[in-house]
Amino acid sequence: MHEMALCEGIVGIVEEEACKRAFTKVNVVCLEIGALSHVAPEALKFCFEAVAARTIAQGARLEIVETPGTAWCMACSKTVEIGQRYEPCPSCGGYQVQMTGGEEMRVRELEVD
Ligand SMILES: [Zn+2]
């Protein structure tokens, strides 16, 4: 499952940070997820609990912040926000848009003890 692999990645990042910053407990993991990444937040939370069990991230709350998808519109010569891949440009309605962002996922912040 897609979400399972992502959660393993998140726990890996948390463990790395724990080594670097020497904390022993994580309260909140704040994640940024691109609107176009096709990640289901509920599924992600569910998997995270399972993957985090018996690791340093056990019991940590997952906070998910969705970041908008962005695309470059050739007609407008500017970056526009899109809600879905292959969506027309919200400024001019044209389809000469190329997706530039919104598929990425990253750990934005850790709240630790
Ligand atoms: Zn446009």
Explain this structure to me?
With 113 residues, the chain is α+β, with helices and mostly antiparallel strands. It is elongated and about 50 Å long. The strands form two sheets. A three-stranded mixed beta sheet has the order 2-1-6, covered by helices on one side. A three-stranded antiparallel beta sheet has the order 4-3-5, with no helix packed on it. Strand 1 (26-34), helix 2 and strand 2 (61-67) form a beta-alpha-beta unit. The chain contains two helices and six strands. The longest helix has 20 residues, at 2-21. It has helices spanning 2-21, 41-52, and strands at 26-34, 61-67, 69-73, 78-82, 97-101, 105-112. Zinc ion is lined by residues 73, 75-76, 89, 91-92, 94.
Helix-strand category:
alpha+beta
Estimated helix fraction: 25-40%
Shape: elongated
Cα-to-Cα separation, first versus last residue: 31 Å
Radius of gyration, in angstroms, nearest whole number: 17 Å
Main sheet record = 3 strands, mixed
Topology summary:
Elements: H1 2-21, E1 26-34, H2 41-52, E2 61-67, E3 69-73, E4 78-82, E5 97-101, E6 105-112
Parallel strand pairs: 1-2
Antiparallel strand pairs: 1-6, 3-4, 3-5
Bound molecules: zinc ion (ZN).
